[in-house]
Each structure stands twice: as structure tokens, then as C-alpha cells.
Amino acid sequence: MTDAARSTDVVILGAGASGLCAALTAYEQGAEVLLLEKSDLVGGTAAISGGVIWAPDNPVMRRAGLSDSAAAARAYFESLAPGQLDPPVLDAFLDHCSETLAFLEREAPLEFSLLEGYPDYYLDRPGALEGGGRALDNGLFSFLELGEWRERVRHNGSPYPLMLRETPLGGATGAVDPQELARRVANDERGFGQALIGGLLKACLDRGIEPQLETDVLRLHRSGDRIAGVVIRADDGEQVIHARHGVLICTGGFEWNEQLRTTFLKGPLTHPASPPTNQGDGLKLAMEAGAQLGNMTSAWWAPTLAIPDDEWFGEQRATPVLLERTAPHSIIVNRAGKRFCNEAANYSALAGAFHYQDPNAYATVNLPCWVLFDAQYRERYPVGPLQPGEPLPDWIHTAPTLSALAQALGIDGAALENTVRQFNADVAAGADTQFQRGASPYDRFYGDRSRPGAAATLGPLEQAPFFAIELKIGALGTNGGPRTDAEGRVLNQQGAVIPGLYAAGNAMAGPTGPVYAGAGGTLGPALTSGYLCGRAAARGAGNRLG
User: d(Cα 146, Cα 132) in Å, to the nearest integer?
Assistant: First the structure.
């Protein structure tokens, strides 16, 4: 081990949303901060996400005169996961998310706006908001402001010159004035998660906090019973970095680690939609330190599309499937040729249907499965990156009849024809009698909102040819990890604090348990937990805010 030891107040592992927020917070509380990132890029999962932030009673809502409360949000969570939540940790999120966003608006070049009308996911539960307000969008951010760091932010190949609220996913058409669009591209202005990470990174860089990239943390460094730093890989062996006030684990989830997935998750997860760097590094460090674990069976589930030979950072790329299963003229069927869910339900809740095991067959009967659609859908709506009118790629199955399509997919043709016949009859009657697709305002939000009521998502499959794409079970990340107290301090097996060790974001046992509350349900808790543990770890190092 090299003799050249380094020291700082706070060491933060992971330069995603929670890590960058923690770094900014700790600095503003007077701490000296070192931010370590194992990848050669910053941003983590947030950088390739929609960037939506779910936060009850947030400052943007208040400025708009919308009514909300932490108590209403608490009732919402308690109705969805009774007995599965850690009340002090949940309360810490609900009571401080507004404070977190106000801090970020003040200290970083970030601008949050309402996603008009974006409802919570479970509108039949107490405390849910149908009219929206808790889901926030990001304003545009020019990456020219990042200088050489402009090329060091993770992305998925798109420049994102739009805000989410300007796209169909945000409830708009996606039509932007061509001159304005050209101006944005010339200025490298980006929205979505790129804007969020860009603004957080700029705030850190302005304070002299430069992430140290491609840094492998080998283990935590102890001093007695306290976590007092980390040991990293160095050119000549190993190096200790001492942390006077604490080490913050903000390394993301474990969805790309096959052994950890198999050990902990309640069902299969084969095609994550997150960066392949999410290997559970922080989880393993916490386990070695004796951390108590929580929420380990859960993830931010999502059905995904994996296009063959479409690789991303050396791994199969997968993207969440939203519009393809919610727009009219489409359904999801299993290998028996039957529908098995409300296709337009929120993506995380669909995991229950995908994971269902038939006790007689002792098999996961709804995998594999496919989205089926007809020529009407193909003429109007995109399929993954494919736009209407573009040549059909070979990863989309097509056939002139439903029975021929069923044969190509290896599913029961008679059952499929019966399924489509029943669905089309329900569409004609205006209501899905099997799974109530279109009954909820959320179902209709991701549909074709130029059509009234349930017709936004209900449309018959009747015009040949017919098409199919296979769905995979994926996730935006896992949300289990070390249990913490309300300030983000990691707890040991006896429930006592492990001195000097903190966790935030998807690397901790998530404050909302298994519940994906609404759009941005990952990033709201991630930013708030980063803020809370950054503030707690910096305590005693001075106070620039006071």
C-alpha cells in the first residue's frame, strides 16, 4: 500500500444525481468534499432518464397555488405498502423534499416546472393527486457551460434538445418551432435528465468539486468502530483516502449484477434500462461493514424493449416501453395468446403480472410476451426508435393475419384470435371489461390524448397487416440496500448507526419502500436523500449557510 495518504472531510462514492446533490450540499454546509466515480462518465441512471422529479408539496406547486401536504402523501404510501415502510425515513423524504428542491434552485442552475396534468400512478388511493403537481420537469441547460466536462456526462446518443413537457411523454405533441430547435442544438441545450445532471455538475464544478473518474474503491477504511475513509486502487497498489466526517455511498443499484439479482429480487430481471455500471458496488461495501439491509426484493420495474445487436457500453441496450403498450390499436399477450394485464397501467406495477407464477405449471406463464398492434397503430405511432413510414426492421414481426402472426411467434392462434375478438368488442362498447384499461386518467395520459376518454388508449386491432415486438422484464434500477436512519446514516444489524457511513439514492433501502408513487418516483427520493446525508455528514465542518 502506498504511503501517500489523502484526507478530506467527506468522501462521496458515485457521481449520479444523489452523489452530485450530496456533494453540493456538503460543500455548502462547509465541508471539503471528494467525489469519486468508478466510470469514465458522470450522471449515472439519472443522466439517461426523463429527469422527472416526484416531490409532494414542492416549491413549484406552492408558487402555482396548488394544495398538497406531506400528510396526504404519507396516507398515499401507507395505503399502498402497509407494514412495509420505515416511517422515520419516509417522513424524512416527505418533510424535506421541498426544502431540497428550493436549495437546488438557489444553488444550482436548475429550473423546475410543473408537468401539467401528470397524475399520480394510483389514483384510487387516499392522498393521490389526479390533476398533477408532484411531478416536475427540468428546464433546458446548455452543455457549453460545462467546458471540457461536456463530453464526460453519460448519454444514450440523443442530444435531448427538448423539455419533457414538450413531448408526448409530457403530454404535448413534440412540435417545436424549427428555428428554436436549431438554436437549442447550436447552443447544445438539453432537457430531460441531461439538464438535471448538467446543472448539478455545473454547480459542483463552480465550487471546485471535480469528480475523480475511473476510480475503483476496493474497500472501506476503518478506524476503530468508525468508517474513516476508503481504500482505492492506485498505480502502485492501494491508497487510503481518509474521510474526517464520513463516507457517502451513492453508487446506484445492483440490477446489472446477476448474482445479486438472483439472490435478492422477487422475480426475474433480464434487461435493465440503466447503465451497466450499476453492479451493486455500494451494496457490497455496506454488507462488508455489517449493514442491515432493507427492501431487497424490489426494483423500479419496467417492461423494456431490447433490439437485437443494439449494444450500449458493451452490453445489450434496453429501453422502457411506454407508448407502444398504451396507444390505441395495441395489446399485450402471453404465449397462450391471452391478455393478462391492463397494458396502460404504470410500468412498475406491471411487474406483478410479468412475475406471476402459475402454481400448477410452476412457471412464469406471462413470459415471454409480446405487444401486438395493427396497421392503424403502425401508421400513427412510433415503435421504439422506429417512426411511422420508416422501413420495417427485422426485429418487428409481421404477418398478414393474426393466425399467421401467432404461428410465427409460437403462440396459440385460436386463442389469440379469440382474445382480439373480445378486446375489439370491448373497444366498440367503450370499456375494457377484462382489465379496465382506460378507466384511470393515468391510463389515458400516455395514450393518444387527441381522442376523448378511454379512446385515448382503446382502439381495435382489425386492419392488416399485424405486428409484434417481444417485451422483456427490466427495471430503471433496484431500490434496496442498507437501511439508514432519517439522516441517511447506515444502520448495523442491531439497528445502531455505523459511525461515518451514509447512503443515498438507489444504493440505500429506498424511503418509499416498494412503491413507485408517480413519474419521478426515483429521483425525488434520490435527490432528497443525497441532500440529507450530505448535510449530516458535513456537520461539524463549519456552516456556509449560517
Answer: 33
Residues in the chain: 546
Question: Which residue stretches of the chain have pLDDT < 50?
Answer: 1-3, 541-546
- Strands (DSSP E) found in 282-328: 293-294, 299-305, 311-312, 315-316, 319-320
Asked if residues 328 and 458 have their Cβ atoms less than 8 Å apart, the reply is: yes
Residue-level pLDDT at 543: 38
Compute the distance between CA of residue 198 and CA of residue 224 in angstroms, rounded to an integer.
Answer: 39
The amino acid that residue 175 corresponds to is A
Is 503 strand, coil or helix?
A: strand
451-502 pLDDT per residue, tens: 999 999 999 999 999 999 999 999 999 999 999 999 999 999 999 999 999 9
DSSP bridge pairs for 12: 35, 248
Q: What is the mean pLDDT of the chain?
A: 94
Joined together, the cell numbers standing for residue 93 give 423524504
Q: How far apart are CA 415 and CA 1, in angstroms?
A: 66
Q: Taking a C-beta distance cutoff of 8 angstroms, is the pair 48, 62 a contact?
A: no
Which residues does 459 contact at the CB level (< 8 Å), separation at least 6? 327, 328, 329, 330, 376, 377, 427
Q: What are phi and psi of 315, to 5 degrees?
A: -130, 160
The answer to whether the peptide bond before residue 359 is cis (omega within 30 degrees of 0) is no
**Which value, to the nearest 10 degrees, does the dihedral of the CA atoms of residues 525, 528, 530, 536 take?**
-130
Q: How far apart are the first and last CA of the chain?
A: 40
Q: 404504470: which residue's cell?
A: 346
CA distance 356 to 377: 28
What pLDDT, on the 0 to 100 scale, is given for residue 286? 98
Q: How far is CA 120 from the centre of its chain?
A: 15
CA-to-CA dists, residue 402 to 143, 163, 188, 243, 459, angstroms = 48, 39, 46, 63, 16
Question: Taking phi first (over 0 means left), then psi (-120 to 50 degrees means alpha), and beta for anything else, what does residue 65 get?
Answer: left
Chain position carrying cell 437546488: 104
CB 202 within 8 Å of CB 108: yes
As given in the structure block, the three cell numbers for residue 324 are 407502444
Gap between the Cα atoms of 102 and 89, Å rounded: 20
**What is residue 75's predicted lDDT score, i.e. its pLDDT?**
97
Please state, in angstroms and rounded to a whole number, the distance separating the CA atoms of residues 396 and 409: 11
